[in-house]
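Two proteins were folded this term; both appear here.
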Amino acid sequence: MSQVAEAAVQTKEPLFSPKNRRLLTDPLDDNNPITIQVLGICSALAVTAQVKPSLVMALCVVFVCSVSNLLISLLRKGIPSRIRMIVQLVVIATMVTLVDQVLKAFVYDLSKELSVYIGLIITNCIIMGRLEAFAMGNKPWPAFLDGIGNGLGYGAILILVAVFREVFGAGTFLGYQVIPQFIYDLGYVNNGVMVTPAAAMFLIGIFIWIQRARKPQLVDIS
């Protein structure tokens, strides 16, 4: 029996094995939920006019996605197949409600600025997709890492878009002036297109093009 236990210890997968590390890193690039899976586009258009709300939204999605993945993975063997999506929605809604209440308690002004978009995390296809495609069929730790990875991949694009929109649309970064006044004195004006959701769509399109140009294997040739 001792030999069996020793063999089990030896074959136990490390917490951050190469396979588990890929769950964190792949969504940042080769399997990004926005630029590769083309999910979560609506919020990327709506909340990226400034960096601060985009950062908060990204953190909220990381929390909701990772904790929801963890809970569904823990419950997966006891969830009847016919009601699994209802259970998933209840878990996501609970996490989103918790996030919404925390924001209202500690950063009320930012909560008002994000408005209904926090609540709409419930309908974010990225989260539902990971619960259905990964958490329902994997152990809790990999599911938790997958949730963090996809949340970070989503958040990275969100923040990158917001940086371009805020800097070129308002001349600020996190509310601080970054374009010197003498540039405006020379005739420079902020780009009005950057404050519209259309700018986010253009930027995401450019990011997708750059990513596929850099890695042609990502191009769907079917």
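Next, the second protein.
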Amino acid sequence: MSLKFKVLSLKLTIIFVMLLSCIVFYSKPVLAEMTPREILEKSDEARGSVKGIEWEIKLKSIENGRKQSRTLKIKSRNFNNLAEFISPAKVKGRKLLMIDRNMWFIKPGLRKPVPISPRQKLMGGASNGDIASTNYAGDYKVARMSEDKVNGEPCYLLDLTAANKKVTYDRIKYWVSKKRLIGVKAEFFTVSGKMFKSATFEYGNSIPIEGKSKPFVSKMTITDAVVKENITTMTYSKIRLKKIPDSAFNLNLLVR
């Protein structure tokens, strides 16, 4: 074997090894995909799981043929939420406080806040508020993850089960966009295994997170699984990141 051929052969071997190394190292980020929990955490950010944020919601609902319209101001910090009714005049000043999976209703003139039971969370406005503030990463475990599409968009399909007994829904099927890492659809199931409601999410808003623009929910549509004509839409506007003080979630101060 000539010296020239040996040198050429050695060069080819080195190039092959380098290419193989590149393939191994380059494939690691692809193989090391985000964990299911990280996917949930990222998707939660786009619905309010940040250190401090406030927004307004225009809520329109049809329930058993009855139409309602409400405007609320929301203050949120890591899924602790204070919702204050702004209009119409007959409900102005009413508040709904959600802290660590517990919920209270506060009304001007009432001396004490009214706790909302798990059963009441399945009804009317409390149900919609509960769905809107769902903490997917904090309150649920991923039993299974697969892939699916929603309106042609590739998604992670996460089958979630309750991590504790305080949550309203025992199981949730949750579709998260693979590219955008935002939740696009959810189905909520009761303990008996029946689907109770479904929700779809739109993201026409954005907020800055770690120096980058992050999509933020602009519309949520909640549909009753049994009476499909019962639909609630929530339109989000006036999004603003700000520091929310502890006093905003102090139940005693809110009753004044």
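The domain at 36-254 is CATH 2.50.20.10 (outer membrane lipoprotein receptor (LolB), chain A). The longest strand covers residues 66-77. These notes refer to the second protein only.
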